[in-house]
Structures are given as structure tokens and as C-alpha cells.
Amino acid sequence: MKRRLFLAILGALLLLVVFSYGWVPLRTSQDDWWHLKTGAWIVEHGSLPVYDIFTYTGADTVWYNHEWLSQVIFWLIYEHCGGLFGLLTFKAFWVALTFAGVAWLSWRRCGVWVVALVVAWLAAEISRRGIYVRPPLFSYALFALYLGLFDAWKRSRLSGWVLAAVTVPLMILWANLHGMYLLGIVVCGAYCCGEFVEWCWRRRKGETLPLRRVLFLCGLGVGFVLAACVNPYGWKLFFLGSKFMNDPYLSKVISEMQVSPFFLVKTSAGWSFIPGFFACWFTAALFVALLLWKRRLPSVADLLLSLFFLYQGLMHWRLLVLFGIAISGPLSWLIVQSLPRSESGRRRVLGAIGVVGGVLAMSMMTLVGEPPPQTFLRRNILLSHGETMDAASYPEAVVRFIERADLPDNMFSPLNYCGYFMWRLAPEKHKLFTDNRFDIWGSKWWLEHEVILSASEKSENVLGKSWHELLDEHGVNFLVLNRDSQLHERLATDASHGGSDWAHIYYWIPPGEPVAGHGFSIWLRSNGIVDRSALVAKSLELFREENPGRPLPSVVE
Fold first, then answer.
1. Which of 91, 177, 381, 480 has a CA that sits 20 to 30 A from residue 219's CA?
2. Secondary structure class of 266 (helix, strand, coil)
3. What is d(CA 476, CA 433) in angstroms, rounded to the nearest whole number?
């Protein structure tokens, strides 16, 4: 009875912590917005956009939208279930459900609930930096489900026909939800290779076994490939990732492709501890240590999948979610295999694992903030009071000014904030210069964006064009710039010397920031392409109205 009560309390506690990780206001995340806007556009028009609808540079670019169904689901939840608050609540419940499933799958592997629960929390802790209102949410859950189904088939708890009847239709669904449907093919391929290796090993030992299990998985893999083609774009989805995976420039800037930082980082101020990455390095070290000690896993497929996603997670930090999910079952099994053999010893160790796991989980929720004091509990409280987004992270005032000032078309804005600008402005009011949908663009517009934002001259970049040549070429009429960007500083310097073709008409400083710190400025072209005088006068009047007592933009350039 005491053991059941302990398990119930531990399970409820860890589930609460995982829910807390997902139930927070939006902060800095941008892609959530354009996914919502795309879903709204699809529902409104009853069709998928053929060409890009959000940018004027890519207006003739075909858009293979591999996430369309997720975007529609997000928009319908937003529209009919309480707006952003309802959508964030859905995300938190979905995340909690996903890792509850991971706990159940881990229990099926190891047979000990304490270990399964703590390892599932570790997986969630590893994943918390990758939990957003984005289509990968569905891929994480389906990835865990596929791992569980193939493991059940491997241990003869599920027939091959049932496995195929469940996973093939799910693959069709997955291919319309998100591009990570390839994970299902990876899982099938790993089990197929594992079965072949085990067949070869048994042949060496003199056993004569048919190849039917290997052939079945080969056929199932082919079925997955064909099922994945049942989407509006067919086989073309298989090649979308190549636009950024093989791009030499994007490989250096896309977060998904960056190495996971160590949890201790040396800065100019000394050594800094990054709590969010401690769990991944601890879990990786624990798994490798136990694997070297026990020198075995239940199957070759377990070994292949664990090592593959261990490498992917540590080499690409945005894939840590997949690492946490993939390694949960094998790690749980290794931990249980390493427990003391005596009943009393097992109970003491399991009790310690449960208590330490529960205390650590509650500490990560209530005490650790990144950056302080942004603990998850504090952010949960903010959301419970109706604060669905961090005001300092999104330039709402800038967007409102652009709408009221009736600025001309062809704006330029920084990539890091494109999602929010798309949500509020594009395509109805202002299309963007470009955005971070690199599966559409590759690095083409990113390079031009960087040349412009860095105020690079012709001889200083690989394009052989200067920043002002690119602005002229694309007919950019106003710029929304970070106040600490090089282009803003260059324009301010030119304006102070009276030789600028751009007029500073607006600035916004986030709450709590000094005037010279972060924020945005808007610069208006003044070389005859637009009627400068009337727009400048109107803009400055709006600025005075919205910011009484503040210096005019020209004073703080």
C-alpha cells in the first residue's frame, strides 16, 4: 500500500512538473506566430497556398508546406478554444500526455515504475528547450508511439499485421503534420537492420532461421515511403531538408545544427552554469557508463537507435527532444539491470531514485530560472493570470505604429522577429523581405539579409553587393531594425552628418531597458521613392501621441 501511494505521489508530481514546462507564456519564440497565421489563411481560403504568401522577394517561389495540417489544428484551437491561452493549455496537456506515454513505454521495457517515471522526467527535462507551439509537437508523440509499437512487435506482443495496420495509416497522417515523418522510416530501418544483424549472428552459431522478419520490415519500410507520399506534394517532401542541411552557410547559423553546449561555460565574467543542458549531458554519461558496464541491450535496434539519437542530440541541440525520447526505454532497462539483486537493496536504491528524482524535478520547476527569476512556476503563475506572452519579446508597439502610420510597401525586418510580423502584418498589410523558413529559401535571402543588417559594403561579402544596392534592388521603402544592429548605427552616423537617404521616424524600447539598449527603430526612405515629408510629419505626430515626453527619434539616433 505504501509503495503504491509513493508511486502515485511521484507520478503526479512529475506529471505536474512536465505540464509546468509546457504551460508558460510565449517568450522569444517566433515561429509559433507564422504557423498560426498560415493555419488561419488555409482555413479562410479553403486551400493551400501554391506560392509564398508572406514575402515579396519570394512571391514567385513554390511553397511545399509540409506542416499544413498542424497549422490548421493550431488555428482551430486558437479560434474556438480561448485564443492563445487555450492554445498554450493544449500544448501543455499534449506535452504531459507525450511524456506520460514515454513513462509507460519505459515501464514496459524495464518493469519498474519508479525508474520509468524518473527517466521520463529526465527526457522531459532534456526536451524543455525544444517545447513550443509548433508542428514538431506531433512528431515527438508519434516518434514515441512508433518506438513503442516496434518494441512490442520485437517482443512478440504485437503481430506484424497489426503493426502494419496501425503504423502505415499513421504515416499518412504524420506526413501531413510535419516533416519529421522521416523518423518513422528511421525506426523501421533500425529494426530492419537489427533483425538482419541478429539473423547473421544466429547463422554463425549454426541456427537456421528464415529471413521473413527482415523481409517483413523491408516491405513495411517500402509501405512507409509510399504512405508518406500521400500528401499534397507527393514525393517532393523527401527532398525539402536538403535546402538547409547541405547549405554551407546555414549549417553555421541554424540552431538545429549547432552542437549542444556543455552545462559549464566560461565567459568573460567567469564560469556560468546552464541548468537546461545539465540533464542531457548527465543522461548521456549515465547511458554510456551503464552500457559499457553491462555491454548489452535487449536488441541491436535499441543500440542503433540509442547511439544514433545520442549523437544527433549532442551534435544538434534542437534534436535533444528526440534523444530524450529515444534513449528512455534502453536507459530504463540498463538502470534496472544494474540494481542490487537483494530485495532490500533494490528497495533502498529505488526509493532513493524516486526521492532524488522528485526533489530535482520540483527544484527545476520552482527554483531554477533561465534567466533568473524566470522559473517555470513563476511563468505558470503569469499565465494563470492571463499573461499569454512576454511583452518585451514581441514588438507589438512597433507593429501598431506601422499600421497607424500607413507606411508604404516593401519593409525590411530582422529574421529573429519575422514570425510576429507575419502574424500581425503579412500578407494583408505588409509582406516581409524574408523570414527563416530555410526549407523554402535555403541561404539565398539569408545572405542578403545579413549583408543589409551588417551594413556590409561590396568588397566585404560573398555577394559582391553593398547593403544600399540590395535595398535599392528590392525597392525597400522602410526598415525595422534592432537598435544595436550595425545598419542602425550606420544610418544614425550618416544622419548625424546630414548625408543619409533615410529618415529616423520611430523607436521603441522594451520595458525596463535603457534608451541606448535593446529595442527597434524604423527608418523611412527619403530619396524620392515615397512622399517623405508627409509621412515623416505623420509619423512624428504619432510618435508624440504614443510616447508623450520622450525625445523625438532624430534626437536619439
1. 177
2. strand
3. 8
Q: Is the dihedral of CA 470, 472, 474, 480 positive or negative?
A: positive
Residue of 534 and 430 predicted with greater confidence: 430
DSSP calls for 461-481: STT---HHHHHHHTT--EEEE
My answer on whether omega of the bond before 427 falls inside 30° of 0, hence cis, is yes
Cis peptide before 510 (omega within 30 of 0): no
- Of 302-306, 416-420, 513-517, the range with the lowest mean pLDDT is 513-517
CA dist 233 and 293 (Å) reads: 48
* Arithmetic mean of pLDDT, 316-328: 92
DSSP alpha helices (H): ranges in 256-372?
A: 275-294, 300-315, 320-337, 343-366
In whole angstroms, give the CA distance from residue 557 to residue 554: 5
Rounded to 5 degrees, φ, ψ at 433 are -70, -55
Q: Are 63 and 47 in contact (CB under 8 A)?
A: no
What gap in Å lies between CA 146 and CA 163, rounded to an integer? 9
Three-state DSSP at 115 gives: helix
pTM given for the model: 0.93
Among 107, 157, 155, CA closest to 301: 155
Instruction: Check residue 544 and give left, alpha or beta (phi > 0: left; psi -120 to 50: alpha).
Output: alpha
CA 552 to chain centre: 38
**Cell numbers of 251, please?**
549549417
d(Cα 541, Cα 535) in Å, to the nearest integer? Answer: 10
Instruction: Report whether 336 contacts 157 (CB < 8 A).
Output: no
Residues 6+ apart with CB under 8 A from 349: 339, 340
pLDDT band with cut points at 50, 70 and 90 for residue 260: confident
Q: The C-alpha cell of 254 is what?
A: 541554424
User: Do 178 and 139 touch, CB atoms closer than 8 A?
Assistant: yes
C-beta separation of 259 from 315 below 8 A = yes
CA–CA separation, 125 vs 439, rounded Å?
Answer: 28
